[in-house]
Design a protein that fits this description.
It is built from eight helices and seven strands. It is an alpha/beta fold.
């Protein structure tokens, strides 16, 4: 097996972002505020390339029903909401009023706040509020890594055939090949669980810190 993956430095990354759907002023300001005021946590924000990918994927699926687990300051939710079909809705689950208060301001500014239902509380509990039948077009999971198996168990049965779940941080900074923390070990086991789940077709993309896409059969 030949490794054809290209190493991307800062200059090449800037080129990639500039030659895709680059962030607009709203996203640029959200990135700046997050990195200025939440410097220690800013790495939890998706990159502009991921945001563009989420909008693209949402549009590709003609999604009207979307779910997000882990919202932080709202960039990924903004990206998904912008890709929804007319009348579409995104339900977001997060535990932080502080972080999501920033998100709400930028959703309002971007004109997508009316498409987003933010629910505060433990996602493992609140996801069960969703209808049990298959109905979700797209789901994005970027939350506590030890919760991934639980979120998977709740989301897969709720995905409509052809619906896609995207799961972030599945490479754990490369530590999946030599896991050192409990979260690393959980993600390693989770990646194997997804690979072996015959309800989905899955691919692990080396985008950012690893992004798994799983399509419900």
């Amino acid at each position: 097996m030949t490794n054809r993956q290209l190493a991307i430095d800062d200059n090449l990354y800037a080129y990639v972002v500039a030659h895709g759907s680059a962030p607009d002023p709203v996203m640029r300001d959200l990135i700046e505020e997050t990195h200025t005021h939440l410097a220690d946590e800013a790495e939890m924000q998706v990159g502009p390339d991921q945001a563009a990918f989420l909008t693209f994927l949402t549009k590709l699926l003609s999604a009207k029903t979307a779910v997000e687990v882990g919202t932080f300051t709202g960039m990924s939710a903004l990206a998904i909401a912008r890709g929804l079909s007319d009348g579409g809705r995104l339900t977001c689950f997060d535990i932080s009023e502080e972080y999501t208060s920033i998100a709400r301001r930028y959703w309002e500014r971007a004109g997508v706040a009316d498409r987003i239902d933010l629910r505060i509380g433990p996602a493992a509990e609140r996801i069960t509020e969703l209808p049990a039948e298959p109905h979700i077009d797209i789901a994005f999971v970027d939350a506590d890594k030890t919760g991934y198996p639980t979120y998977w168990a709740e989301l897969v049965p709720r995905m409509r055939p052809g619906g896609v779940i995207a799961i972030d941080n599945v490479l754990r900074g490369g530590r999946v090949v030599n896991p050192s923390t409990e979260a690393d070990k959980v993600v390693v086991a989770f990646n194997e669980q997804v690979r072996d789940d015959d309800r989905v077709d899955a691919i692990l993309l080396p985008l950012a810190d690893g992004l798994t896409l799983a399509r419900r059969r």
